[in-house]
User: Fold this.
Amino acid sequence: MTAAQPPGGEALTPDDLAGPDMPAALDDTDGPAPWDEASPAAPRRRRTLWWPAALAAAVALCLGVPALVAGGSSASGSVTAAPASDSPDAGFARDMATHHQQAIDMSFIIRDRTSNAEVRGLAFDIINTQANQRGMLMGWLSQWGLSQSSSAAPMAWMKMTPYPAHDGSLMPGMATNTQLAQLQQLSGTAAEVFYLQLMVQHHTGGAAMAQGYVDVAKNPVEKALAQSMVTAQTSEIQLMTSMLAERGAKPLPTS
Assistant:
């Protein structure tokens, strides 16, 4: 499976989600809309799904990457210095990029495991939003002259009790390798339910990490991006919880 790692944070298109048995019309520009027009709830949900991607794009355009580069100027006119390698700014960029990559991977898996337009639309939004954000985070590290990896434990910058990494789950919310393998074996409603359960768990951990950075951030631009993650992922958790309920399921119990 090829993970989405667009250079410079380039946006994916709906066609990137199209499988051999599915049309590439998630944006309903060709052919009928992927929901039942008789259902009044469907358009409402569609609008809920696309706004996190739009929010991420707006953050990128309004804040601008140059504001994070050493020697750049902040909104207040003061010079913004590149952060240290062990700073929360650098640590958050590295860790959230890793965290985002797994969400992208899981969303590509569900693309091939269900034909449900609603779930595939959600997966598209997550891929597009998090691939763009990941590109920004990794690009900033490069512009700061910092390594995109570190020998420090994940989330050490948060000064929290170390997370017990296990079976590929490196940070809170991340799925294990065993869970990812299980998702790849499921199909239809069973795959949708497990994907939504894993993604609720993933977003919960991701939003907590983003809020943790917001609380200690030194760079106002990166802080604004983190706050947009908290807002968008909290909204998507609510959406996915309702989608689970429609399928007679609940989020996974918290450990």
The two ends are 29 Å apart (CA to CA). The CA atoms of residues 94 and 149 lie 6 Å apart. Confidence is low (pLDDT under 50) at residues 1-11, 17-48, 59-79. DSSP finds six helices and two strands in the chain.
